[in-house]
Amino acid sequence: MNVSLAAVTDDDRGAFEAAAIAHYRELDPRFAPAEDWRREWFRAAAQRPRRFACWILADGARAGFIVYGAEPHRFLPREHGLVLELWVAPAQRRRGVARAAGAAAIAHLRSLGLARIQLEVSGTDANAAKLWASLGFVKTAERYVLE
């Protein structure tokens, strides 16, 4: 199977947002996009400088999406890489699509000269944790949230 990444365009906004909603509903079935999400998510994901929103293509057909990019370090005058989202449609899973897409994003970020790349994995997503570990990521922290 041939896996590649293709940039999301402004014309793709509706389909891209629908895929994102499917992704977030898998993480939390109660997810319902608020007005600010509908207004801002696409811009934040696909239209920021040094942010890459891509369709994942498996043998030329859309199989999911990935969002990654370069972000300023919080305190130092440098950037780091960040994988923000990765989703593969259920029918395309267990075929190496996510692994190939993750590897392509890592290679792109490395080509930008970014030595450090980070990401978050939902505490309930053991498959995602295994995927990223297989690509060389190591767990360095836990995130706690107060709602």
Written overview of the protein:
- The chain is α+β, with helices and mostly antiparallel strands.
- Helices cover 35% and strands 26% of the residues.
- The protein has helices at 13-27, 35-46, 97-111, 126-134; strands at residues 3-7, 51-58, 61-72, 79-88, 117-119.
- Strands 1-2-3-4-5 form a 5-stranded mixed β-sheet, with helices on both faces.
Q: What is the N-to-C succession of helices and strands?
A: EHHEEEHEH
Low-confidence stretches: none
Distance N terminus to C terminus?
43 Å
What class would the helix/strand composition place it in? alpha+beta
Notable characteristics:
single chain; 147 residues; alpha+beta; 5-stranded mixed beta sheet; 4 helices; 35% helix; 26% strand
Mind sketching the topology for me?
Elements: E1 3-7, H1 13-27, H2 35-46, E2 51-58, E3 61-72, E4 79-88, H3 97-111, E5 117-119, H4 126-134
Parallel strand pairs: 4-5
Antiparallel strand pairs: 1-2, 2-3, 3-4
Summarize the structure.
This protein is α+β, with helices and mostly antiparallel strands and 147 residues long. Helix content is 35%, strand content 26%. Strand 3 and strand 4 form a beta hairpin.
